[in-house]
User: What shape does this take?
Amino acid sequence: MLSLRDRRARGEKVSIKWDKEDAPRYGNTRDARNVSLFDSLAEAEEMANKGDVILAIDIPSSAKLTRNQERYVQVNKIPKDWVVGETSHKNLVQQALSEGKPVPAEVLKDYPDLYTPMGDKRLTNTKVPEIIQQFPHPAPKQMVIGGDLGKLIIEIPPPRGSHVESEENKAALKESWVKAFGANTVIRTNERWDNTVKHLGYKSLSVPEEARDYLSTAILTDQELCEQSQAKLQEAEVVSDGRLEPRQLGNLMLARAIANSFHFVTKLQGVYAAIIPPASDRVRTAGLYGTSTKVIYISLDQLYNGKDMIDTLIHELAHHKEFVETGEAEDLTPSHSTSMTYVAAAVVQNTARGDYHLWLKDVTW
Assistant: This one.
């Protein structure tokens, strides 16, 4: 039984559907012995079989109702005036196909006119039966995303029948996002990623939680960006000293001398030249610190110039100091900035004292 009385009480408009040409088929009543009554459309959908008809009925408050042994409502007859409309199991299958929902193969085989087995291509009549449209379903909610960066208007949930997962829809959503916020904007899922996102050449944008899952089908999130970056950096390749040019080797030897002059609680395990892939499509990677190996890697191109090497080394030494003291090694954090100031000051002091003079003669500036 799907009672519409409550819907009318909420102010919903529901029209009675019973055409004259239906009379020969229905008569004035239906034999209740051949009718199953359910409390919701969901129950009726679950129990419906091929050939079944599902009626939406509104039982008057004056009707006498009893329940059978299974506690389902029983009535002696169903007058035509109780019937609001009808659908069928086939209509429900058609509805599911039109909305892109998965339908089991054993169900589809009963309706070959709705489905053609050609890969994933489905040939359907997307016109939704009237009675199904009358049953309650979540209405799309229009939502404005953005602020100072720009604005994007979307509907959550997406309109019925839209294939959110389709490549065409993803491409359209991504295009709208880029037009509104730029190609370097990602979805913020956690503020802890903000500094890393900025370091990678991107911006983070907060979106309402109810819109996040929908948008993330096409738009990169901050966490995904950071995970992709980490995966790329794991491809770094160490270059042995014997493969370096003399100027690169001279700068690397100075880097090792500087690193060895620091006595952290946990010793740095080494400084190496490496071929380091870009951390993202928007920035290059000058250096890398391994939190598990306690090793610093300096990109080959940074070893051609003494200033570039020292800038990179101070940055990565500060990461080591930060990690030893806090367990974190993220860019643009207050603790990393403090550590960089400490390391830079110590390098200047040690240089003035002459600690690195043996290696400075081989450095190219």
Remarks:
- The radius of gyration is 34 Å.
